């Protein structure tokens, strides 16, 4: 048994335990520690045969087991618990050692922690880890931020345990950028995840309520879609969830689940930060609000009797054609959601000076993470071809695909509106697309209104400068 560990993991709930096992399975000696010692013992007893573990009962033992520079991964709840673990371990570390936070921390907390620890000579790495329990064990997508020199030492280990992209075997990990960059990108990953899941949910509801298909039939449709350009983890698992039958009742599983979606908060953060950055992530926002609305059971019950259109399910042939249209709408809306997510990463990178490489972000999302999808290969290629691409919609391939999809996309939104099926994601994505390409927007009227009631001034299309109209007087215009 080695007397020193190349990496240590403290916090051995499922994610931490599986990450520790992943390091051990890949040949590293792993020091393991948990506040509840029994959990540490259970890990080594159950999985000790998978590799070299050094079990530590105290913080001091844990630190002593680590080779220099020490690499200490904390896998505890974001917020206060993470601060508490840092406060416990930092005094035991020496300059050059590193603390790696693998939780879903808010990037602002990571920036604060990185600055405070840097002043003590300790490296702090905020590391997004995506892929859930299975990913942590078999290969997650990993989004480490923090000092570049930390990655020089930590990166090779993360590359070994990460998922590998199916197309070229590349490790799904990169040094995202300094301080909070890694947790920021993980946050946006989760925002896109919410949008993806909302769009899939809307496609399901349309196939159910408008096309009249059963969950099992819709599962088959998703399996077919998963063979094509929608090939992705979320589409794959949707087919599994929809084909599942509840053992207790024999009913489709999806019909026995309470239709109130919960959220731990990373999708919400994505929207809050986008509002601060002035980035329209309407698809992600609608996904967050759809989850919130679903949770207002009393409000929904009080609204149940509100009048809506008569349901008019389609005939068999029309239903099949409609399903093809829904695929087009889903794909086009998905492109918009990723476009918005990458826009937010660009804005965050500019705001915080992170110089994030969008092609690399797309590349490491090709495997291991929840939003892993074949079309991320195409997003990577788009950014590798043109790093300063203003928007994914400016990429000719994506622009062409959206052009080909838009008639069906519009038909689907029209059908949803006519049949009273809520599709905030599809509709927001289409509205975003139409707003982006519009020659003129009603924002001109907004500026006029703001100047009328608040003298907030406006700019003109034909002259430089800011102006105000004397609405209460002769309505002449003055330079502001
Ligand atoms: C991942 C997931 C994960 C997420 C949980 C719960 O990338 O592995 O995104 O980080 O936190 O799945 O997410 P919500 O409760 O916010 O849906």
TrEMBL record:
Cited InterPro entries: 6-PGluconate_DH-like_C_sf, 6PGD_dom2, 6PGDH_C, 6PGDH_Gnd/GntZ, 6PGDH_NADP-bd, 6PGdom_BS, NAD(P)-bd_dom_sf, Pgluconate_DH
Annotated PROSITE patterns: 6PGD
Residues annotated as the enzyme's active site: 186, 193
All copies of domain 6-phosphogluconate dehydrogenase C-terminal, residue ranges: 182-472
Enzyme class: oxidoreductase
UniProt binding sites for NADP(+): 11-16, 34-36, 76-78, 104
Catalysed reactions, as listed in the record: 6-phospho-D-gluconate + NADP(+) = D-ribulose 5-phosphate + CO2 + NADPH
Pathway: Carbohydrate degradation; pentose phosphate pathway; D-ribulose 5-phosphate from D-glucose 6-phosphate (oxidative stage): step 3/3
Keywords: Gluconate utilization, NADP, Oxidoreductase, Pentose shunt
EC number: 1.1.1.44
Top-level taxon in the UniProt lineage: Bacteria
Any one GO molecular function term: phosphogluconate dehydrogenase (decarboxylating) activity
Subunit structure: Homodimer.
Stated name of the protein: 6-phosphogluconate dehydrogenase, decarboxylating
């Amino acid at each position: 048994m080695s007397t020193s560990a190349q990496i240590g993991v403290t916090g051995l709930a499922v994610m931490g335990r599986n990450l520790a096992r992943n390091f051990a399975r890949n040949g590293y000696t792993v020091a393991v520690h948990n506040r509840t010692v029994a959990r540490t013992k259970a890990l080594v007893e159950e999985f000790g045969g998978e590799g070299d573990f050094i079990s530590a009962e105290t913080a001091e033992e844990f630190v002593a087991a680590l080779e220099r520079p020490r690499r200490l991964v904390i896998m505890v709840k974001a917020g206060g618990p993470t601060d508490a673990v840092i406060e416990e371990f930092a005094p035991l570390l020496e300059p050059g050692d590193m603390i790696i936070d693998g939780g879903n921390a808010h990037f602002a907390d990571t920036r604060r922690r990185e600055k405070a620890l840097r002043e003590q000579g300790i490296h702090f790495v905020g590391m997004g880890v995506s892929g859930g329990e299975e990913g942590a064990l078999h290969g997650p997508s990993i989004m480490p931020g923090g000092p570049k020199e930390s990655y020089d030492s930590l990166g090779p280990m993360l590359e070994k345990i990460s998922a590998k992209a199916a197309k070229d075997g590349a490790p799904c990990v990169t040094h995202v950028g300094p301080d909070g960059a890694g947790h920021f990108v993980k946050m946006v990953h989760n925002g896109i995840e919410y949008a993806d899941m909302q769009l899939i949910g809307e496609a399901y509801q349309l196939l159910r309520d408008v096309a009249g298909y059963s969950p099992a039939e819709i599962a088959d449709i998703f399996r077919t879609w998963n063979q094509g350009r929608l090939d992705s983890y979320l589409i794959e698992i949707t087919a599994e969830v929809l084909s599942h039958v509840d053992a207790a009742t024999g009913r489709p599983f999806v019909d026995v689940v309470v239709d109130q979606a919960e959220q731990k908060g990373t999708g919400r953060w994505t929207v809050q930060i986008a509002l601060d950055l002035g980035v329209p992530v309407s698809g992600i926002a609608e996904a967050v609000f759809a989850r919130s609305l679903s949770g207002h059971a009393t409000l929904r019950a009080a609204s149940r009797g509100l009048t809506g259109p008569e349901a008019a399910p389609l005939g068999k042939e029309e239903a099949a054609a409609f399903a093809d249209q829904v695929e087009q709408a889903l794909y086009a809306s998905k492109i918009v959601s990723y476009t918005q997510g990458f826009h937010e990463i660009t804005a965050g990178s500019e705001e915080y000076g992170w110089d994030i490489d969008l092609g690399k972000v797309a590349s490491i999302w090709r495997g291991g993470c929840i939003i892993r999808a074949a079309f991320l290969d195409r997003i990577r290629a788009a950014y590798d071809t043109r790093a300063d691409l203003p928007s994914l919609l400016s990429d000719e391939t994506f622009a062409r695909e959206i052009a080909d999809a838009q008639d069906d996309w519009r038909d689907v939104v029209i059908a949803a509106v006519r049949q009273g099926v809520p599709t905030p994601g599809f509709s927001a994505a289409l509205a975003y697309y139409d707003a982006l390409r519009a020659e003129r927007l009603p924002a001109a009227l907004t500026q006029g209104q703001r100047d009328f009631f608040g003298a907030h001034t406006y700019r003109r299309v034909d002259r430089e400068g800011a102006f105000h109209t004397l609405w209460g007087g002769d309505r002449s215009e003055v330079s502001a």
